[in-house]
Amino acid sequence: MDILFFEPIPRFALWGHTLVKDYFHFSWFKEGVGQAWAFSTQEESNICFSDPFKGKTLQYLWTYHQELFGHPNEEFPVIISLLAPEDDLSIQVHPNDEYALSHGYKMGKNEAWYFIEAEADASIVYGHNAKNKEELKRYIEEERWEELIKTRYVNKEDFIYLPAGILHAMKKGSIVYEIQQATDITYRFYDYHRKDKDGKERKLHLKEAIECLSYDPHITDNILEKKVFGRKNMKETEYISNRSFTVKKLEIFGKSVYQSGNYQLATVIKGEGIVNNHHVSIGTSFLIPLTVTIHCDGAMTIMMTTK
């Protein structure tokens, strides 16, 4: 068995233009794409273009070829996205498993962001200042949005965890590798009163967002037990490993070998090189099956996610 390559899925957005297309070399993408799903089985599922599974979807392989993954009787766990917003995203909150299950979804939505690039003074919305639901409602009724919302400056190579219940938003000025649990539940909390081409403001989901919002003052601490391993011509960094996902970064600078003991959803975010005799470069996404060892050469950075 060898590594298997997958086509990215373009996702159009009001805050998209051409940056995803240009940065990740997705020349076939059209204008208006704000993100690319590198791995997903939601709504659309990525198509494999490697033999012997050429033309099959990721969902098909997860369902009928668990020898590649080793996680039978489980849901596919994540959506992996490449984002390059050219305007600020709406401010959102996502539900935890308990809330999601009670509303007909299979799981809640924890997320994480790795910042591939970040402009000077780039920031995100990350948390809020309300102490309880009553205080939150007063902020909203009085439209004191700037007082309510917390922001956090971000830098290139930052890793930010976004547990369910945290108020958050990506802003323009960053290029991001995003990991989220495999459900596309988004409760829009605030959208700056922006209007679409028809002059209408986008729908908010304030009731659901308020019900899901956490008031834990430590939810924005972002304390992670990062682990770094040195290997021959390779640096491995594990940023997070919890019940939702495990995320690692491989920095490769020459001939090196890697085996994880689990399947990996891999995406090249910088540079280029060779993996198991295949040329890969920025924007390339491939599955490393359960038992496959990868032999690498070149100068590149690969993000990898599994559960």
From TrEMBL:
<feature type="binding site">
    <location>
        <position position="94"/>
    </location>
    <ligand>
        <name>Zn(2+)</name>
    </ligand>
</feature>
<dbReference type="Pfam" id="PF20511">
    <property type="entry name" value="PMI_typeI_cat"/>
</dbReference>
<protein>
    <submittedName>
        <fullName>Mannose-6-phosphate isomerase, class I</fullName>
    </submittedName>
</protein>
<dbReference type="GO" id="GO:0008270">
    <property type="term" value="F:zinc ion binding"/>
</dbReference>
<dbReference type="InterPro" id="IPR014710">
    <property type="entry name" value="RmlC-like_jellyroll"/>
</dbReference>
<keyword id="KW-0479">Metal-binding</keyword>
<dbReference type="GO" id="GO:0004476">
    <property type="term" value="F:mannose-6-phosphate isomerase activity"/>
</dbReference>
<dbReference type="InterPro" id="IPR011051">
    <property type="entry name" value="RmlC_Cupin_sf"/>
</dbReference>
<feature type="domain" description="Phosphomannose isomerase type I catalytic">
    <location>
        <begin position="31"/>
        <end position="100"/>
    </location>
</feature>
<dbReference type="InterPro" id="IPR051804">
    <property type="entry name" value="Carb_Metab_Reg_Kinase/Isom"/>
</dbReference>
<feature type="binding site">
    <location>
        <position position="111"/>
    </location>
    <ligand>
        <name>Zn(2+)</name>
    </ligand>
</feature>
<keyword id="KW-0413">Isomerase</keyword>
<dbReference type="GO" id="GO:0005975">
    <property type="term" value="P:carbohydrate metabolic process"/>
</dbReference>
<dbReference type="InterPro" id="IPR014628">
    <property type="entry name" value="Man6P_isomerase_Firm_short"/>
</dbReference>
<feature type="active site">
    <location>
        <position position="188"/>
    </location>
</feature>
<keyword id="KW-0862">Zinc</keyword>
<feature type="binding site">
    <location>
        <position position="168"/>
    </location>
    <ligand>
        <name>Zn(2+)</name>
    </ligand>
</feature>
<dbReference type="InterPro" id="IPR046457">
    <property type="entry name" value="PMI_typeI_cat"/>
</dbReference>
